[in-house]
Amino acid sequence: MATLSVCQPQLGGFSFENCKRNAVLEAEVTKLGCNVPSARKTGTTICGVVFKDGIVLGADTRATEGMIVADKNCSKIHYISPNIYCCGAGTAADTEMTTQIISSNLELHSLSTSRLPRVATANRMLKQMLFRYQGHIGAALVLGGVDCNGPHLYSIYPHGSTDKLPYVTMGSGSLAAMAVFEDRYKQDMEEEDAKRLVRDAIAAGIFNDLGSGSNIDLCVITKGRVDYLRPHDMANKKGVRSQRLIRPVYAVTGNYKYKQGTTGVLTKSVIKLDLEVVEETVQTMDTS
Amino acid sequence: MNTRGLRSQLKDSVPVTGMGQQVGAYGVQDTLRSGFSSVKNELLPSHALELSEKNFQLNQDKMNFSNLRNIQGLHAPLKLQMEYRAARQIQRLPFLQSSHLALDTLKGNDESISFEDILNDPSQSEMVGEPHVMMEYKLGLM
């Protein structure tokens, strides 16, 4: 709305009209000592692993807004196509819009070619779009799926570079999760081993990184079957003292009640109290 | 299209360097039609992506046509550009919404969705162009 009169028809897409005004406002606001509102991020742990028959993707479920948890149970594993799913870290809105746009494009493409879409196609579409916007779209993605050539796993960075690897982690908790992967990853694992490995990796991220928390979501993709396990494991249940998932033996609970039968019972006598009804009143509820 | 129309087509092509200002008669900046100006507005883009986004479609087309010329010879981009030019002429007057159906089909935009389709839909923009001004601009009379 900066021009006096419009000479050419408007184009769609991003409009940079207010950027200068925003820069001026930000300078004024910081001079007064306040903060400009920040975008909601998903300080995150996401990871993926290739096993014998397919892919296991895992993610935590916390979304943060600065120092506050904005969403305790958000869904970070996004649908791209029936055989391809994508975990997203970074700015929450960017990951959601990006994955939705690519999902629509892939659907149109698969309708036009009448074939199941390939993971490499989704990867190329994502990297071309992210490179076009030079990293201003803050979406770090873990893309995984099974197509006609087998299982594939890619990691995509916000500036548009991609890696094709057997196991990847992204997000603020990626180092904790990668440590678990580097220790226990083996080629051609079974499905249960792969699920346990991904769950432990996400749990490492949840317990060691402030930006990740709440539950663990898993998505197992094999040829012809997708298991979307949400939540797969609730690592932080409210009201119960947390138990270490990694060490299975001694669970630390805050429960100091003694078990039944700790002390021996010598005698037991039951005395019934005779109660007679003195007064009975009925109060009707107002259900209008 | 008459020669005046051709001149306005040249004016529409965006130069790669700089933002370009509306120059009226006598080479002086046209305050009535394009508002007050400042040197900073013209020299620097307000966002790092502004220039690259403005020219994105043009640059993509240039790259694709030069690739096509190298692979298949000069006739291929010439024929395609002739079809594009023909499709671009099937439009309503500039202040009305045209569907660009033929042009989109030729370019392949009917099989893809991007931010141009989701954000800032021109059919729902807050500002409506004034018909006389837009026609004068298109015919190169302004």
Automatic annotation (TrEMBL), chain A:
SUPFAM superfamilies: N-terminal nucleophile aminohydrolases (Ntn hydrolases). Residues 254-282 form the Proteasome beta subunit C-terminal domain. One of its GO terms (molecular function) is threonine-type endopeptidase activity. It catalyses: Cleavage of peptide bonds with very broad specificity. Its main location: cytoplasm. Component of the proteasome, a multicatalytic proteinase complex which is characterized by its ability to cleave peptides with Arg, Phe, Tyr, Leu, and Glu adjacent to the leaving group at neutral or slightly basic pH. The proteasome has an ATP-dependent proteolytic activity. This is Proteasome subunit beta. It comes from Oncorhynchus kisutch (Coho salmon). The gene is PSMB7.
TrEMBL record, chain B:
The keyword Chaperone applies. GO terms for biological process: proteasome assembly. Keywords: Chaperone. GO terms for cellular component: cytoplasm; nucleus. Pfam families: UMP1. InterPro entries: Ump1. The keyword Chaperone applies. Belongs to the POMP/UMP1 family. This is Proteasome maturation protein. It comes from Oncorhynchus kisutch. The gene is POMP.
